[in-house]
Specification:
single chain; about 230 residues; alpha/beta; Spore Coat Polysaccharide Biosynthesis Protein SpsA, Chain A; nine-stranded mixed β-sheet; 9 strands; about 30% helix; globular; Glycosyltransferase 2-like domain-containing protein
């Protein structure tokens, strides 16, 4: 069985982190290497009463943001497969087993991703399509990838780090496989370093103007980086 490295960036998500770790402890796949990267939390996340060595907690000396925390976790990871899990994510028990089996049955694929829930709302995603990916993001950060395919997150981006990641992998010849099953749920009351909102929220008429401007700015930065016409 190939080792899967699970990297969890965290900033002020202590309570949510424990729930996330609990869901990982129930995974039907082993072995797992779990690396929690604390990016300067004030609520001091702990790993709970777990077997020694099952969870590695890394505290960064200086705040680096979500992308930097993920990169540091990846640098320390030793697994053949790599997956980034948000601290407020809860995975179904067979999530990693399902992802590993799918990736191993598709040797030409670089990563696998699934549908998921954001609170009560279902995000079905879609079958992998490189052209559709260039038109807009539809793959969440929580996807299993071959470690050899991971190019690193662009730490200069304040938004769309995940979209940029998948675009970079695809531009290097990689491709993804979609699992049409909800394998994890994200908290609807998100806070901390990995605050994420679905794109439709930013298009609502009552959305905060400055937030919309910020969203559009970073969307434009990523498009320019990858030569995508607006």
């Amino acid at each position: 069985m190939k080792l899967v490295s699970v990297v969890i960036p965290v900033w002020n998500h202590a309570k949510e982190l424990e729930q996330c770790l609990e869901s990982l402890s129930k995974q039907t796949y082993a072995p797992l290497e779990i690396i929690v990267v604390d990016d300067g939390s004030t609520d001091r996340p702990v790993t709970g009463n777990r077997e020694p060595g099952t969870v590695r907690l890394i505290r960064l000396e200086e705040r680096r943001g979500a992308a930097g925390a993920r990169n540091e976790g990846a640098r320390l990871a030793t697994g053949d497969y790599l997956i980034f899990v948000d601290a407020d994510a809860i995975l179904v028990s067979h999530a990693i087993e399902r992802m590993v089996a799918t990736l191993e049955s598709h040797p030409d694929a670089s990563f696998v991703y699934s549908s998921f829930r954001f609170g009560w709302k279902r995000f079905p995603s879609r079958a992998f399509d490189a052209d559709a990916l260039r038109r807009g993001p539809y793959i969440h950060t929580t996807a299993l990838m071959r470690r050899s395919a991971f190019p690193g997150f662009d730490e200069s981006l304040k938004k769309f780090q995940d979209w940029d990641l998948w675009l970079t992998i695809v531009e290097r010849g990689g491709k993804g496989i979609w699992i049409p099953e909800e394998l994890f749920t994200l908290s609807i009351g998100r806070k901390g370093m990995s605050v994420w909102l679905p794109s439709f929220v930013h298009r609502l008429p009552w959305a905060i103007t400055e937030e919309m401007k910020n969203y559009r700015h970073w969307e434009g930065v990523v498009k320019k980086k990858h030569g995508i016409e607006s």
